[in-house]
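Customer escalation, tier 2.

The customer says the design service returned an amino acid string that "doesn't look like it belongs to this structure." They asked us to rerun it and document both sides in this ticket. The original structure tokens are below, unchanged.
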């Protein structure tokens, strides 16, 4: 391989929105119960309100700015009213997304209090399955109203005098999916969501609304944006990449997300032209991750590289994606796994942390030049055959994807250029010349943060695998920090 990177610090893409490093907590598996909330923890890991302090710290170390809640599929049969008030009076209910029982011991008030401890903004997804517009308005009133009205007073009675000021509200979850309670077609959904948006804004004009999108490259996205553009601030995208044991598919999968963002950007522009709109509409990529087997994924180095490639996509597309929530934050498809005695940071935790800390500031235009395309690019599928067969996520137009994946930022204080590099090739190390634009000088010292191990199947927890070095090894991820002089 012989790629070359060209970066011109004068060519800004857009500010990197810190909200691209956001999270998602759903009532699914052990995400909420025994993940973030574990009141019976026998090892002293929960505080007086039942919140796992070790989990809070691990998420604080990721600087999580926004957390989406309570689903996901769960929300489409969720009655928020069951989850507030005295805990002993809260009903247990059948739960239709994951076919379990919901105890309702954790609800809106617990979630908001947890977000406050974390220092994150809450983002609530509305139930557009079994829920009514009346329920949605009541939830908004409960959370945000300072009036002398029923649900605002209910919040006060439950001990929360001040309104919560929840800014982000999603108009349903994956309403297009056959698995969703209350599935609709795009036209029906758009009509209903438009009316919900109108009413929600009448009650609280300060909120920001998110339309339920699909992959960004589906006809659903085109149809819903056309109708909902006048009333929403964000369009959501959900996409999971899948490896099915194939490293190349795993690490190249995020190319589909990049294509989805390009298509969505164009669809937004089209909807704005058609609606004669001048407002901003951007993407809230509110579910993304590598998801292969079940609820509790065990990630290896290949998955960490895939996550780094996902994050490179979000930095490169900083002009259109302003919020992205890894699905999910704890235990379920998560970089963090808890046990009663502690937590385990999986391989995927580390690229996320490096990005959240270092890849902030202004995204820079970056070009990876290749002189031998046959060696430097991958031309195979980016979606494994079984996903293609589901024909839920059709693969966007095939593209030649470079083995070397990169993004760059100018640091917030404008003194450094930081380059995130993923060498996705299984076996070939690469020496990468990095050219900065004319009249740019960088210091001789470069800080290097590296995620690497000898085997792609290695998981965190080995003591003999992780190493620090300055060279772009085969199947590795680095962030290089250059100081401008
Ligand atoms: O994150 C797990 C599930 O994946 C969510 O509940 C749903 O929205 C998606 O299909």
């Amino acid at each position: 391989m012989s790629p070359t990177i060209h970066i011109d610090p004068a060519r800004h893409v857009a500010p990197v929105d810190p909200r691209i490093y956001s999270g998602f907590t759903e009532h699914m598996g052990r995400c909420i119960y025994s993940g973030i909330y574990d009141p019976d923890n026998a090892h002293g890991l929960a505080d007086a309100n039942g919140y796992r302090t070790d989990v809070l710290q691990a998420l604080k170390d990721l600087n999580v700015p926004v957390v989406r809640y309570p689903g996901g599929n769960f929300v489409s049969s969720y009655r928020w009213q069951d989850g507030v008030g005295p805990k002993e009076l809260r009903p247990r209910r059948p739960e239709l997304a994951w076919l379990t029982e919901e105890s309702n011991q954790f609800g809106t008030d617990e979630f908001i209090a947890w977000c406050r401890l974390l220092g994150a903004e809450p983002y609530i997804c509305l139930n557009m399955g079994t829920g009514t517009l009346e329920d949605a308005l009541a939830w908004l009133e409960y959370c945000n109203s300072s009036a002398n009205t029923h649900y605002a007073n209910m919040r006060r009675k439950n001990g929360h005098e001040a309104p919560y000021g929840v800014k982000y509200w999603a108009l349903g979850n994956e309403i297009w999916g056959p698995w969703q309670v209350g599935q609709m077609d795009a036209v029906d959904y758009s009509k209903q969501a438009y009316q919900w948006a109108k009413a929600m804004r009448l009650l609280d004009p300060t909120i920001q609304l998110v339309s339920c999108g699909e992959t960004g490259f589906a006809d659903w996205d085109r149809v819903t944006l056309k109708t909902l553009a006048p009333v929403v601030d964000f369009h959501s995208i959900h996409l999971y990449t899948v490896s099915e044991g194939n490293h190349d598919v795993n690490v190249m999968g995020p190319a589909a997300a990049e294509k989805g963002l390009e298509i969505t950007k164009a669809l937004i522009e089209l909807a704005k032209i058609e609606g004669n709109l001048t407002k901003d509409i951007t993407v809230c990529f509110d579910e993304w991750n590598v998801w292969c087997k079940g609820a509790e994924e065990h990630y290896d180095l290949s998955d960490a590289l895939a996550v780094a490639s996902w994050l490179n996509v979000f930095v490169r597309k900083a002009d259109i994606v302003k919020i992205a929530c890894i699905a999910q934050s704890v235990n379920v498809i998560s970089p963090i796994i808890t046990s009663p005695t502690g937590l385990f940071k999986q391989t995927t935790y580390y690229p996320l942390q490096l990005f959240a800390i270092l890849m902030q500031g202004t995204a820079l235009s970056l070009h990876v030049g290749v002189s031998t395309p046959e060696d430097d690019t991958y031309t195979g599928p980016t979606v494994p055959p079984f996903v293609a067969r589901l024909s839920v996520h059709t693969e966007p137009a095939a593209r030649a994807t470079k083995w070397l994946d990169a993004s760059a930022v100018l640091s917030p204080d404008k003194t450094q250029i930081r380059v995130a590099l993923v060498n996705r090739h299984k076996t070939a190390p690469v020496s990468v010349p990095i050219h900065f634009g004319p009249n740019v000088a960088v210091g001789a010292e470069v800080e290097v943060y590296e995620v690497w191990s000898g085997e792609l199947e290695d998981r965190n927890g080995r003591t003999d695998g992780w190493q620090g070095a300055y060279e772009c090894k085969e199947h590795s991820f680095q962030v290089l920090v250059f100081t401008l002089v």
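Tier 2 assessment: The sequence is consistent with the input. Residues 17-359 form a domain with the TIM Barrel fold (CATH 3.20.20.80). The CA atoms of residues 298 and 452 lie 17 Å apart. Sent an explanation to the customer and offered a walkthrough call.
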